[in-house]
Amino acid sequence: MEIIMKWYYNAVFYHIYPIGMTGSKRTNSFEIGEHRLNRLLPWVEHIKRIGCNAIYIGPLFESVAHGYETVDYKKLDSRLGDNEDLKNFVAFCHENGIKIVLDGVFNHVGREFFAFKDLRANRENSAYKDWFKNVHFGGNTDYNDGFYYESWDKHGTLANVNHQNSAVREYMLDAVRYWINEFDIDGIRLDAADVLDFTFMSELRGLTDTLKPDFWLMGEVIHGDYTRWIGDNMLHSVTNYWLHKALYSGHNDHNYFEIAHTVKRCVDMGQNISNAFYNFVDNHDVARIYNKLNNKAHFAPVHVLLYTLPGKPSIYYGSEFAIEGEKMSYSDDNLRPELKFEDYKDADKNNDYTKLIKALGNMRLSNPWLGEATYRELLLTNRQYAFLREYGDRRLITIVNNDDNNADIHLNISGEFKELFSGEVRNFDGNMNINIAGNSGQAWIG
Known about the structure:
Layout: E1 13-16, H1 18-21, H2 43-49, E2 54-57, E3 61-63, E4 70-76, H3 83-95, E5 99-104, E6 108-109, H4 114-122, E7 159-160, H5 166-183, E8 187-190, H6 198-211, E9 216-219, E10 237-238, H7 241-252, H8 256-267, H9 271-274, E11 278-280, H10 289-292, H11 299-308, E12 312-316, H12 347-350, H13 352-366, E13 374-380, E14 384-391, E15 394-401, E16 407-411, E17 414-419, E18 425-429, E19 432-436, E20 440-445
Parallel strand pairs: 1-2, 1-12, 2-5, 5-8, 8-9, 9-10, 11-12
Antiparallel strand pairs: 3-4, 6-7, 13-14, 14-15, 15-20, 16-19, 17-18, 17-20
Helix pairs in contact: 5-6, 7-8, 11-13
């Protein structure tokens, strides 16, 4: 029987936080001014050039401020434009061979969401009092509501909804139906999936499988046993925060054992699960990778690993240019800056960081088998690390070096291979002897 490869088996993602990237105001006036989502259209060609075939974008729907306090699940945020803008953006990306995955914020809603406004107005008599978690009319909140409600991470602007209520689940599922039918999206990243109701996620998988068989569901999971979220009746992928931490700290500490141990932990979960990980080195919630690295030259080996280890690589907008952004205790605005296309339109030609990302991204697209390839460690020291990815008769050998000095590497490998960055072709007879520059990485494809 022929195995049909789904698009997400070898997806290479570009992650956009649209309110930030388009320079939108941080507070919503709920009036459409400039249709700022259209500012992203020129970026699509750049995204293609650097070897990405999927965009994860969000949050997108009407909200109060940062986007995760949703007000209306069926309306594009007024700061970005209207629903026609979103429909056109998705269609334009599809024309360019790029899939679209958007944020699904289903664990909580904003205080201006219609059901929560009704609860505030009608209290015990509200038809929606069971839509929210742990509502107690004998308590109070910082907003002096005269009742208590559970919120995400104790942020009162994010009221947790009660997915034990079937009406709530159906409301959220109806929003997903609308997104697929109206905008033709290809997947959803589930915000706060680590605290999201499992029954809801299972029902969501059943719905999306029915509406669009190649639809992809990915969950934001930080801690816990990742296998709980991945399966035939659950999600396809989860965020790999384990590897995120290991990639930068393993370089900062000159400790490739940490990275290799993390990869083994992932691979030991099973081949299908390890290759389902959504891998990243930064995103809209954490400091930029350029800031996190003590030695900026480690940018190269970090990204060689990001693109060649099991899982789906993702680049957060702007990090392909090595822009900076520290996480602050009071705001995430530093992580979500406006970028103007004109300032970066030739970066893939004149920015060495961007050229590195471009080479790695297009290597992934040219070798789709990597999405399903096995993993085997070949060499491991504190400062050098090598491994084999294999699928049928196709092979990729990755070698990285976090030391300032060159290193001689000896591997028991046979066959003809071509190195990605230098273009060098060599035929090895069981003795692969390689000299690798300090703070660099190599990818040999055979």
